[in-house]
Automatic annotation (TrEMBL):
Residues shown, of full length: 299 to 603 of 603
Cleaved signal peptide residues: none
UniProt KW Cell membrane keyword: yes
Source lineage: Bacteria, Pseudomonadati, Pseudomonadota, Betaproteobacteria, Nitrosomonadales
Source organism of this protein record: Nitrosomonas ureae
Name used for this protein in its record: ATP-binding cassette, subfamily B
Alphabetical UniProt keywords: ATP-binding, Cell membrane, Membrane, Nucleotide-binding, Transmembrane, Transmembrane helix, Transport
Amino acid sequence: MLQLYMPLHFLGFVYREIKHSLADMERMFTLLEENKEIQDKPDAWILDVKNAAIHFNHINFSYEPNRQILFDVSFDIPAGQNIAVVGHSGSGKSTLARLLFRFYDVQSGCIQINDQDIRDVTQQSLRSAMGIVPQDTVLFNDSIYYNIAYGRPDATTDEVYAAAKSAHIDDFIESLPDKYETIVGERGLKLSGGEKQRVAIARTILKNPAMLIFDEATSALDSHSEKRIQVELKRIAKNRTTLTIAHRLSTIADADQILVMDHGRIIERGTHQQLLAMNDQYARMWELQRQKEADQNSPLILTAS
Ligand code: ATP
């Protein structure tokens, strides 16, 4: 009974996490095999991801009847570009990522990748083309090696080591009692937020996906870790089609385009400079951040999350 209870208990835990964040949607699907509400069409084809360009086309969406969350949301992520989404807590930022990953289907409108509606392709091909670095990575109760290799189970040992090195987590792993065989996760060694995020980055580097979703951590890591992680994220996002859900404006000022969301609608869009010049919502958020930074002399969270 205990043997059955533990996995079920764990699945419940993972599911609760995912309901409220993007934490490891990839893993959720593997564990549950499939989401019963989302089915492949009988003639679903394999997504063509070459130079993936993403198009959100007049999306309306609600999780529950009578409570609409997204209202006529349209935007493009041209191939290789990074589009960042900012806005207050609950404005619908993570929902965009959940829909792109096809955790739910939209009620109207469509999401296209290279002109292919994501409902027309296999879920497997869609999700294997997408890497997610969530704000809080839930680790398997398994070795740290397994947790990284999960990004691409057929990777060689050298490739796993190289991914750990690129994510700047190799020195840390070498310092652990059993090195790569150290058990981590809920019942193993507890890792800090930054260490977990670096495991997620290593996993993503190994997976080498055409598209990326970054869900920036809401709680600031120490500024040294933060800077290193930001550098790493920028490096892996280079030339990949990327959706960044941002909580701190300072980290996305160089995004190709920034979308400002409010109550499920895009209320402003443009580059950092264009948005500042508009002197409206984004400019106010930026000013607020600047003031707080001056007060606290530390990076801060901007979206009132
Ligand atoms: P945050 O910055 O706090 O992460 P967000 O902008 O990413 O917020 P979303 O997670 O997209 O916001 O949530 C948008 C709205 O949808 C919120 O009102 C939230 O309560 C609601 N919501 C999110 N997930 C679900 C769900 N699984 N079922 C019902 N409502 C949900």
